[in-house]
Amino acid sequence: MKILRADCHEIDPRPEMSAIFVDGFYEHLSYFSKNREKLTKALAHSFELSQFFIAVKDDIVMAMAACNETKLPSIRLEKRQLSAHLGFIRGRLAYVALNKYMLNQPHPFQMRARTGSIEFVACAADYRGQGITHNLLSTIIDVTNCEDYVLEVMDSNKPAINLYKKLGFEEVNRKPAPKFSGFEFFVYMRHTKVNNKEQNGKDSKMPAKGEEKR
Predict the structure, then answer these.
(1) The predicted structure's pLDDT at residue 108
(2) How high is the pLDDT of residue 195?
């Protein structure tokens, strides 16, 4: 298995990424179509590859996650593409609803400098339970130049929350979810990277530069 930035993959990974995305978020996407293939084709255009990392084996994309260090979205929807695959009305509805409720949720706290937003974490069904997502996120934290990492997760997604805790994320805030969303809160978590050079020879419990004391 290798982990690389999605725009460095020799083969365009967007169709496979879209299939993983649809499978992982089908509960929220199925309103616009019950046909997973249609959804996959409708969304394949939208991934900003420079912001995504993927776990790959034998040219098969097994898992994906974005690390967004900019103010630009890691997923950009096009009305024309959505309407071409979902129909004019459903395509327009998908564009408005996904942008409002899924893609552009602001964090309910001040974002620090050099913070990476971990987004759209998903693993293909055939590869779940093998530690691939853990390795993917751990690698993202190791190779990117951020000091802090934040993410948003549904309070009902206990396996994901437990995974993030194992990686060192801690809950910092909650925000009520929209009505009829199927869960109660968006949970926001933060992880502060420890600078190994600064920590060398020091007590491992001492906060690294920029890390909050708790």
Answers:
(1) 81
(2) 66
Query: Residue 210 domain-assigned?
Result: no
Range of the domain at 28: 2-199
User: 126-147: b or e for each residue (b if 16 or more CB lie within 10 Å)?
Assistant: ebeeeebbeebbebbbeebebb
Q: Find the DSSP H helices in 153-213.
A: 158-166, 196-199
Instruction: Report how far residue 143's alpha carbon sits from residue 152's, in angstroms, rounded to the nearest whole number.
Output: 21
Enter the tokens of residue 142: 């190791």
- State the first-to-last Cα distance of the chain, in angstroms, to the nearest integer: 36
Q: What is the pTM of this model?
A: 0.86
- Show the CA angle centred on residue 28, arms to residues 53 and 48, nearest 5°: 25
How many CB atoms neighbour CB 153 within 10 A? 21
Residues with Cβ within 8 Å of residue 2, at least 6 apart in sequence: 55, 56, 57
Give the CATH number, domain containing residue 158: 3.40.630.30
**Mean pLDDT by groups of 10 residues along the chain of 214 residues:** 96 97 93 97 97 96 95 93 97 94 79 91 95 97 95 94 96 87 90 66 40 36
Q: Tell me the β-bridge partners of 210.
A: none
pLDDT of res. 204: 40
Q: Does the residue 90 lie in any domain? A: yes
